[in-house]
Amino acid sequence: MVAVETKAKQEKRQIMKTQISIKSIAIAMTLTALLVAISVQAVPQTDKSLYERLGGVFAIAAVVDHFSDAIVENPIVGKNSKNPALRNWHTNNLGRLPGLKFMRTLWVCEVTGGPFKFSPTKPGKTHLGLEEAHRDLHISPAEFDEVAAELGRSLDFAKVPAREKAEVLAAFAAHKDEVTAGYKQK
After folding, report:
1. Could you say which of 74, 113, 132, 175 would form a disulfide bridge with 51 (CB–CB 3.0 to 4.6 Å)?
2. What are phi and psi of 44, to 5 degrees?
3. Between 137 and 121, the higher pLDDT residue
4. d(CA 143, CA 37)
5. In the structure, how many helices (H) and strands (E) does the chain have?
6. Could you report the per-residue pLDDT of 125-144, keeping only the tens digit for each?
């Protein structure tokens, strides 16, 4: 009889442990659901895309227009550049600049989450890849950095807020290896 009581007590203990485990899991799930609900409320549900925060296609086109004109005049990467390919482009191909501004605007619109789609004239490895479009210009990492600095100045000229400026520059910087793929160190 003692052995039977011990077995019954063991079964009862096991049932109690199972019930405690189920209650613990239920409490943990409830707390998790509560934390998720609180964090969802803390994050704005209507966070706009970078494209929208920049002001859309017209605001982006204005920045691209200023940026493109500034690049032509930039002493490091423009018409007086020490890089012969950049110097040649900025002195002999300016008739293509309006089209380039259009393509740059489409590219920025797509990269920032806008509704417009960029269609490259010289496709890279990815849809937004820039390596083939820039390969023949032999752009060095330092020249890329100067172009990024010029972009920063154009964003400042347009009074783009700091958060959006940082996001645009980060999106641009993400393509540095592609843009400098044609550079050969001397």
Report:
1. 113
2. -60, 130
3. 137
4. 48
5. 9, 0
6. 887 888 888 989 999 999 99
HSE-CB at 20 with a 13 A cutoff on CA atoms is 6
Q: Is the pLDDT of residue 75 over 80?
A: yes
* 8 A C-beta contact, residue 151 and residue 175: no
Predicted model pTM: 0.73
**Residues found in the chain:** 186
Select from 43, 82, 54, 46 the least CA-distant residue to 169: 54
**Residue in the block written with tokens 């990269």:** 111
Read off the pLDDT of residues 12-45 as tens digits, 9 standing for 90 and up. 666 656 555 555 554 544 444 444 445 444 445 5
6: amino acid identity, one letter: T
Q: State both tokens at 20.
A: 């405690």
Tokens 């998790």 -> residue: 32
Return the residue matching tokens 């309006």.
98
Half-sphere exposure of 23 (CA within 13 A, CB side): 6
Handedness of CA 181, 134, 126, 167 (dihedral sign): positive
The answer on pLDDT for 5 being more than 70 is no
Residue 3 identity? A
For tokens 């940082």, the residue is 166
